[in-house]
Amino acid sequence: MNASQQHHSASLKVTGGTLFDGSSAPFPNPGLLIREGRVTVLGAAALSADADDVFDASRCVVSAGFIDLCCNLREPGNGQKGNIATETRAAAHGGFTTVCASPETSPVNDSGAVTHLIREGAASRGVVKVLPIGAITRGLEGDMLSDMAGLKSAGCVAVGNGSRGIRNARILRRCMAYAQTFGLTVMFSPENQSLAADGYAHDGQVATRLGLLGIPEVAETAAVMEMLLLAEETGVRLHLSQISCARSVEMLADARNRGIQVTADVAMHQLVFTEAALAGFDSRFHVRPPLRSEADRQALLEGVRSSVIDAIVSQHQPHDSAAKQAPLPATEPGLSSIESVLSLGLKLVAAQELSLPRLLAALTAGPAGVLGCSTVLSEGAPADLCIFDPDGHWTPSASTLMSVGLHAPMMGVELPGRVRLTLVNGQVAWSDTE
């Protein structure tokens, strides 16, 4: 949704609650006035100003809008797994105001033409901001480099390989060197395909007990090491997407200390669940990278707490029901997760595994820093806001989920945290007035 295409008539005053923009500690909301898509007054003067509407945010957190670095919108595609209209509405329901669209579309986003298609779809049917990520190789096949100059000029904010590996290290090096010349960040999911082979679960106790084919952690860590060394050599800005192992966090911290330009994210489900979620052969938890051990989960949490991991992502992958109904190895990986990210994070806060300010920073300022933008709520800033009630509750179900994908991580379970209002450029993208 582009600001230029919106018709801003209403002004909105937000009173009460706690204000948080990811950059400093939360503080009582002094008053917030929004006009023409921007924050026009922040402070006591906002309370006495005239506004068309007033939103009482008492007991709520008024946060900068969440930014998702990894979201599958399934468009272009055949539509049965979702589209820009359904999945951006799901994003707004989850409190997200900006999503980075994965290049894994059909056709793959490896050309300016496909990027334009995504941007036009987002402008006409999307309710949140959509930032396309371009495919770093043609068709994401890992062989020939894509037209990165064309992708950048069409509006891609970064280039990456989606969830697929690049088998050939020489091609990986060329990708990085080429992206570096255009000043593009590369976003890679680290996986050594020959080591991962046909696996689909963490190579640990649960896989051994159930007879599942395992993906060893070295499939990830070997790829992380290779990518860090190549990034150091080429000078490219590297972003490691969805790391899942304790050892990856160590290597990341070490690379940062050596001055390598590297950032990273982790999917929310990796912070909440472990390989034990597969114990009942539950195909919803067939994800890639796989859910790993409790020791890995603890290391990932510590990575978020210490800011070694910059951002938490949804890794939202909506599927039609058939894709998840086969026997476990034959199902497609991925959770329909963007609507539950905040709630699962609040469960971590309740368990004292993560502080609320750190959770919100990893959903706002952290991903914004990766993209080179800001979430600071100051006068003149775009009014991208998520207002949520941390003590409210909701239950994911076929009737409450906006996504086409009904394989959310905790279907039928009451979850904490209810998004009351999501504003994108001052326009209501989601409203819950219960």
UniProtKB/TrEMBL annotation:
Name this polypeptide is given: Dihydroorotase
Q: What EC number is given for this enzyme?
A: 3.5.2.3
A single BP term in Gene Ontology: pyrimidine nucleotide biosynthetic process
Q: What keywords would UniProt list here? A: Hydrolase, Pyrimidine biosynthesis
Q: Which organism is it from?
A: Marinobacter excellens HL-55
Provide the Dihydroorotase catalytic domain boundaries: 62-245
InterPro entries (alphabetical) = DHOase (IPR004722), DHOase/Allantoinase_Hydrolase (IPR050138), DHOase_cat (IPR024403), Metal-dep_hydrolase_composite (IPR011059), Metal_Hydrolase (IPR032466)
Family matches, as PANTHER family: ALLANTOINASE (PTHR43668:SF2)
Q: What cellular-component terms does GO give this entry?
A: cytoplasm
**Source domain of life:** Bacteria
Q: Does the keyword Hydrolase apply?
A: yes
GO molecular-function annotation terms?
allantoinase activity; dihydroorotase activity; metal ion binding
